Amino acid sequence: MTHPFLDLAPLGADRFASIEDRVARLLATEQDVVITQGEALLPLEGAIRGTAGPGTTALNVVTGPYGQTFGNWLRDCGATVYDLSVPYHTAVTADQVEEAFAEHPEIDFVSLVHAEAATGNTNPVAEIGEVVRERGALFYLDAVASVGAEPVLPDAWGVDLCVIGAQKAMGGPAGVSAVSVSERAWARMAANPRAPRRSYLSLLDWKERWIDGGRKALLHAPAQLEMLALEACLERIEEVGLDEVMARHRRAAAATRAGAAALGGGLEPYVHEASEAAPVATTLRAPSGIAASDLVARALETAPALPLAAGGGPLAKEMIRVNHYGADATREAVEASLTALAAALTDHGTDVDVEAARRAVAEAWRR
Ligand SMILES: *Cc1c(COP(=O)(O)O)cnc(C)c1O
C-alpha cells in the first residue's frame, strides 16, 4: 500500500517554479520570489547577511523580539546599526523613521517587522516605505505574521526584501518560507563580498543557479512535503479569496478586543490603539496581581487546543496572546478563548461578565 506522505513522485523544477509564481501572485509582486527551504528565519537571516556589511548603515526598527534579532545579525555583519525602539504596546510612525534619517542621513538600509505576533502590533509599512524610498535606502520587511491577515504589497510599498512564512495567517506549513527580492537588492548582494555564497544561507546561489538558469534545475532536493503543503495552502487561499481570509483575521482581532473589554475583570488590550493592533493575533494585558502565564496555564487545562499563549520571556508575567490565525481565525475560537480566560479569572476570584463578552464578540463579528 502506498503511504500518503512517503511514496510520493519527485517534486520537479516546473512544479517548484509554479509554486513560486503563486506566491508572487499572492504578494502582487513582479520581483523575483525564492521559496527558501527552511523556516522563515532562513530567508530573514540570509537576506541580511546577503546585503549588509561593514559599509552598511542600518536603521533597525524594534517593535518586538524579532527586531532585536535583526539588529544582532546586522551588527554581526559589521554594519553600523541605529536601533529605533518603540514600546511594544504601540507602533512605529513614518515620522519617527523620517527623524532617524534626518539625524543619520547615511542610513542605507532599513529593517522593519510588519506585524509582530509576539507583541500584537502592526506597523504602517506603506507610509514608512515612502520615506525609505525618498532616501534611497534598501527596505527589508518581515511580513511573516502579516501575510494573509492584512495586505502585504512589496511593489506598491517599495519593499526590496519581503520575507513571508505560511505558518501564521496563511494556515500553512512552517518548514518552507519565501522572500521577494528587488533588482536593487540583488545588485547590493552581488556587490557584497561578504554575502554568503555556496551556503545554505545564500540567496545569491538561488539567483545564479536557479533564477538566471531559467528555473530549470533545483540546487538540491526540495522539502517535498512542505512544498506540497504550501501549494495546497495557496490553493485554499485562492479558492476562499485572499480578501475573505484577511477579513476573517480582522474580525477575529476586533472581536477579541471588544470581547476582552466587555469581559472586564481587569483584562485589557495590550496594544492601546486598535489601529495599531495586528489582525493576526491579539495581545491582552493580564489584570495586575495575576501572572499572565498562570491564567493561560489554567485556561488551557480545560481546553488545551485553544490558541492561547503567554508572552515570551519577560512578557510572560503581563501578556496573554490570543493567536487567532489560520484555522483559528473564527468566531468560535475567539469566543472559546475568552470563555476559558473568564473561567481562569473566576478561579482567581475575579468578577467577569461572560455573557457581555459573548455579545460583544457576536456584535464585533457582524460589523
Ligand atoms: C512567527 C514569526 C516569525 C517566524 O517565527 P516562528 O516563531 O518560528 O514561527 C518571524 N517573524 C515574525 C514577526 C513572526 O511573528
Layout of strands and helices, then pairs:
Elements: H1 13-26, E1 32-36, H2 41-51, E2 57-62, H3 65-76, E3 80-85, H4 94-103, E4 109-113, H5 125-135, E5 138-142, H6 154-157, E6 161-165, E7 177-181, H7 183-190, H8 203-211, H9 224-240, H10 242-263, E8 268-269, E9 282-285, H11 292-302, E10 308-310, E11 319-322, H12 331-347, H13 354-366
Parallel strand pairs: 2-3, 2-4, 4-5, 5-6
Antiparallel strand pairs: 1-7, 6-7, 8-9, 9-11, 10-11
Helix pairs in contact: 1-9, 4-5, 9-10, 10-12, 10-13, 11-12, 12-13
The chain binds pyridoxal-5'-phosphate (PLP).
The site of pyridoxal-5'-phosphate has 13 residues, from loops.
InterPro entries: Aminotrans_V_dom, PyrdxlP-dep_Trfase, PyrdxlP-dep_Trfase_major, PyrdxlP-dep_Trfase_small, SP_NH2Trfase/AEP_transaminase
Cofactor: pyridoxal 5'-phosphate
GO molecular function: transaminase activity
Protein model, in words:
It is built from 13 helices and 11 strands. α6 links the parallel β5 and β6. It has a 7-stranded mixed beta sheet with strand order 1-7-6-5-4-2-3, with helices on both faces. Strands 8-9-11-10 form a 4-stranded antiparallel beta sheet, covered by helices on one side. α10 (242-263) runs parallel beside α12 (331-347), α11 (292-302) crosses α12 (331-347) and α12 runs antiparallel to α13. The longest helix is centred in the C-terminal third of the chain and has 22 residues, at 242-263. It folds into 2 domains: 13-240, Type I PLP-dependent aspartate aminotransferase-like (Major domain) (Aspartate Aminotransferase, domain 2), CATH 3.40.640.10; 242-366, Alpha-Beta Complex (Aspartate Aminotransferase, domain 1), CATH 3.90.1150. The protein has helices spanning 13-26, 41-51, 65-76, 94-103, 125-135, 154-157, 183-190, 203-211, 224-240, 242-263, 292-302, 331-347, 354-366, and strands at 32-36, 57-62, 80-85, 109-113, 138-142, 161-165, 177-181, 268-269, 282-285, 308-310, 319-322. By secondary structure, it is an alpha/beta fold. The model has no long low-confidence stretch (mean pLDDT 97). The chain binds pyridoxal-5'-phosphate. Pyridoxal-5'-phosphate (PLP) is lined by residues 39-40, 66, 113, 116-118, 142, 144-145, 165, 167-168.
